[in-house]
Structures are given as structure tokens and as C-alpha cells.
Amino acid sequence: MTPVPPEPVTVDARKAISRPWLTQSWLDLTFIHWAVEPRLVAPLLPRGAVPDTLHGITYVGLIAFRMHRVGWFGLPGMPYLGSFPETNVRLYSVDEHGRRGVVFRSLDASRLLPVVVGRAVFGLPYEWARMAIRRKGDLVRYTSSRRWPGPRGAYSRITVRVGEPVDEATELEHFLTARWGLHNAFLGRTGYVPNDHPRWPLHRATLLQCDQDLVGTAGLPVPLGEPVSVLYSPGVPVRFGVAGRPAGIATP
User: Per the domain annotation, does 5 fall within a domain?
Assistant: First the structure.
């Protein structure tokens, strides 16, 4: 099929999800991003997706946050099993239908059951890790050490100072945060899962520490140099819809 031009970057979801099958909240998020040449990450994307770019550049994201009360099919979110720290490494993608999204290269989480379910049922690269999030005043610290399946001991230690609210996000900040779906390869096909949530309440943030090897163990070229963007958000409630038609075709 002839590829469709990428949909516009919009600060609100293009389509509201009326009947979510999965709900959760993402809280105390820190977004760290590095610029990278698209050709370096293109082989890491699932079939049918290519790097999404802004002025010819794409990005690698390291996102640390607290997952809160994951719920299924309209049921109340789970307070223990559905609440845990998570840190993911992600890339930015667009498919043949013009749908912009993210591709997760790794998702470290501190609850074993969600990790097993995420890997077995959805084919997502979840990793079980020992993790903590601590906040004191305007300082937020995230720590993680991988347990299973590995590489065991892969880690991150991130500390940020939260700054002033963002009154008007830049073009780049919209591009990196206004993402309304994910691409994921599973059972030989690349699917797209949409989501919606309120607009991000963003803050500028100062990166005080970023000692980690998660980006390298996720297959990305390192070192990436200094981050081009560091942001913080207190968080948003999120809803996921039914997966859309596959991006690309079945793999052999």
C-alpha cells in the first residue's frame, strides 16, 4: 500500500476512547530525551514502522515514573499489583497509516506479575527490577536494578530538580510527549494500540544525575551525549483502546 503522510502532532488525542479495556495513571514522570540519527534506530523498530522525525531528527527517550492503579475492563484499579515504579526506554515511530506512536525497547517494573503478563500476553519487553521513587521538596530520585530476565543488574539512577510549569510547550516538547499510541510486534504482526489522556501538565526540570545503562542494554548506540530535553510531569490518568488494524504485514 502507498504510505499515508504522518498525522499531525496534536496536544489532545485525535479520537477519544469511549470504552477502554485498560486504565491506569502515570504519576511523577521524568522525561529525558536524546537526539539521534534515524538510520541508527530504524533497525530496532518493528516491521511496518519507521522512525518518526522532527526536522530530520528522531529521539531516544528514558522515562521514569510511577504506575498507579492499573484496571481492566472498567473495574477499579488495583492498589498493590497495579501500582509500581516503572522506567522505560522508548523510540518514536510512524506507520504506513500515518499513525504516530512509540516503540518500547525495554520496560523495567517492580511487580513480577505485571511483568510476566506484559511479556506473555502482549509481547512487551517488560523486565522485573528492584526500584524506588523518592521525592523531597523539588527533588525527585528514581533508582532501578534489574532482576529478570536480564541482563541482570542493568540499572538507572536518576535525580531531577522540578522547576517552573511550562506555559507554552515548544514544538519539540509536543513531539516528544503528545503520543497517542504504541506500535508493538506480537505473533508475527505489528499492531497499534491507541490511548488518550488529558493534556500533560509539564514542568521544566534540571537533570542532577543520570547514571544508567538501560539505553545501551536496549540496543541503542551509546554514548548519546547530553540530553536535549528534560521535563517533569505530576501525571495524568490514561485509557487504552482496542488495537487498530496492523501496521505492515505478517512476518515470515
Answer: no
2 in a structural domain: no
Q: What's the CATH code of the domain at 122?
A: 2.40.400.10
| pLDDT tens digit sequence for 14-49 | 889 988 999 999 999 999 999 999 999 999 999 999
Mean local confidence (pLDDT), 155-164: 98
Please provide residue 72's backbone torsions phi and psi, each rounded to the nearest 5 degrees: -120, 135
Predicted pLDDT at 1? 61
pTM of the model: 0.94
Task: Report the candidate in 235, 227, 203, 179 with the shortest Cα–Cα distance to residue 26.
Answer: 235
Q: Could you list the residue range(s) of the whole structural domain that residue 117 is in?
A: 22-242
**239, 196 in Cβ contact below 8 A?**
yes
Q: How many domains does one find in the chain? A: 1
Helix (H) or strand (E) holding 216: helix 214-217
Residue 179 is assigned to a structural domain of this protein: yes
